[in-house]
Amino acid sequence: MKTAKATSFRAIKMVAPLAIAAFVGLAGSAFAADVDADAAQALAKKNDCMKCHAIDKTKKGPALKKIAAKYAGKADGEDKIIKNITTGPKVKLEDGTEEEHKVIETKDPKALKNLAQWILAQ
User: Fold this and answer.
1) Which pTM does this prediction carry?
2) At 88, is the secondary structure helix, strand, or coil?
């Protein structure tokens, strides 16, 4: 015979993953809603980012979706993207060669944060 305690524990085990998934989904959509995609795309276009990157295909550099996947769920992902686009580090290209990453021509921290968040939202 099942006890009320066993039944409620089983219900919690079934509902908890759904609640977590819903929370993550809501948090992700709230995060994406905070991004000004038009401003991010304009900054990327102004700085020729799309010359080497595309949203979902590899060009000279990795696809933005691949970059987003690399930093997904990492607390310092946004900071690492901003560092990469503001300091011009050596990066390994898809063909195996290396070159200095182009530095974004803005010092506006909000614009840089927005661009990094847009990349992460891909």
Assistant:
1) 0.72
2) coil
The CA-based angle 76-85-37, given to 5 degrees, is 80
pLDDT, tens digit, 9 for 90 and up, residues 65-121: 999 999 999 999 999 999 999 999 999 988 899 999 999 999 999 999 999 999 999
β-pairing, 90-92 vs 98-100, is antiparallel
Give the number of C-alpha atoms closer than 13 A to the C-alpha of residue 34, restricted to the C-beta side. 12
**111: which residues sit within 8 A by CB, 6+ positions away?**
39, 43
Q: Name the nearest CA neighbour of 118 among 47, 43, 51.
A: 43
What is the b/e burial string over 24-43, where b = at least 16 CB atoms within 10 angstroms of the residue's CB? Answer: eeeeeeeeeeebeeeebeeb
48-57 pLDDT, tens digit per residue, is: 999 999 999 9
Nearest-angstrom CA–CA distance, 42 and 2: 61
CA–CA distance, 67 with 52 (Å, rounded to integer): 13
